[in-house]
Amino acid sequence: MISSPALFFLLQPGRPSIAAPPLPSSPAPPLRGISISPVAARPISSLRSSSSIRIISPPHALPDPLLSLPSMDPQEVPDLLPPRPPERDFAGTPYVPVYVMLPLGVVNGNGEVVDADVLVGQLRVLKAAGVDGVMVDCWWGNVEAHRPQEYNWTGYKRLFHMIRELKLKLQVVMSFHECGGNVGDDVSIPLPHWVTEIGRSNPDIYFTDRAGRRNTECLSWGIDKERVLQGRTGVEVYFDYMRSFRVEFDEYFQDGIISEIEIGLGACGELRYPSYPAKHGWKYPGIGEFQCYDRYLQKSLRRAAEARGHTIWARAPDSAGHYNSEPNLTGFFSDGGDYDSYYGRFFLNWYSQVLVDHADRVLMLARLAFEGSDIAVKVSGVHWWYKTASHAAELTAGFYNPCNRDGYASIAAVLKKHGAALNFTCVELRTMDQHEVFPEAFADPEGLVWQVLNAAWDAGIPVASENALPCYDRDGFNKILENAKPLNDPDGRHLLGFTYLRLTKVLFERANFLEFERFVKRMHGEAVLDLQV
């Protein structure tokens, strides 16, 4: 699922073209060694070719699904782009596995693998290109759809058998959220029917904003320990689901086909509050809203205020703006605003601790269910407003990371406690590109990636990553490589793995796929013949 709000902006009608972004009225100040490059979401098949670039031919005959795709002759396209900057040679560097996310609806609600024959052909192409494995969402809404603790894993059994036959590895996501409300969602998979029935009579099981709007994408963390789900708590429901999966697919764990389980912990399967939902009118780069108005989280807030001795603090900020506000136009997030007051620090500590506590509870049970297996947690890259003091968009998402505090160290610590890896997004984005497309967002994806990766590495936990936007071009792939294998790192640190978003027909367009295949080789530490030096 694509959760990146930048993609939401790029897909809106009437927005400036990515290929020719509007120039700012005055030159932007130079950023640390950042060169101007195309936005990562642009397919290579839409780029103009430079005469200094050679499109390589595959060293072997490509499988049938690729042979039928049109090829691109570089001589047919005008030479309008300047020569590319020199590329770093990754030959001989550590091997970083590459996985590819399968389509969101690869298994439908009837337990069927969608377009199975086409999928097998595509998987064969990926295998021939050196891809290590694939990532699959196991949707709670499909598996436990009708009655509590009645699980239907039929479709996933068929899919996993196909993947094993092709000798690919599996990353499996425990997806406890709905599919269909975010940018990039091309199917609709709601929460289980029996859960939504409970929600009709008790809507406080959902995250709620200041205006009382409920977000049905996932369950509020306020019910983690409340027996409101037909006699079970939230965390008990998650544990029962994970334990059922572990039993049903024991053979795939035993033979090593399942290499990792990613635990869904919030909106979009990420560890965050659903603070920027498009369904409630949010648009990039709005700061989002706090999501703590259901009665269970309100009760938690009151208890925290009473324990602190300030019952008047048992409220969420009343000057935090709305979904599409800018931080400087609010009393809470502006420079010198209430976010850094005694009350503001109390509230943000509580709000972010609820997020950490939820991760702690669920990961403790995940470690029991998947004992001896690798587990991971995905953390979203909320990179807009990163260059402001308050980091407002991160605060509403639950990351207490203003300019005077490290908001990711506590998350890294809880992952370390349970032996979980951190999977971070937006590693393909360049700060200068974001500045060109939407300068007023004060975004800094490179600064955020650097902070989060180092917070995780300093805590001694493995780090994996994935791209936030569709990526088909060399500049985007090179940025991923730079983050995957930092240059001159004195400790030789590198990513545990990379998962590519996502398997689509566009990826298999000949020029795009050749670029992707080249990227896989370099992630594996292999030499390529057309290195730009």
TrEMBL record:
Gene Ontology MF term list: beta-amylase activity
UniProt record, GO biological process: polysaccharide catabolic process
Record's catalysed reaction(s): Hydrolysis of (1->4)-alpha-D-glucosidic linkages in polysaccharides so as to remove successive maltose units from the non-reducing ends of the chains
Annotated substrate binding sites: 137, 177, 185, 378, 383, 425, 467-468, 502
PROSITE patterns: BETA_AMYLASE_1
Enzyme Commission designation: 3.2.1.2
The family this protein is said to belong to: Belongs to the glycosyl hydrolase 14 family.
Taxonomy, superkingdom: Eukaryota
Record key words, sorted: Carbohydrate metabolism, Glycosidase, Hydrolase, Polysaccharide degradation
Residues forming the catalytic site: 270 (proton donor), 466 (proton acceptor)
One Pfam match: Glyco_hydro_14
Keyword Hydrolase assigned: yes
Protein name: Beta-amylase
Keyword Lyase: no
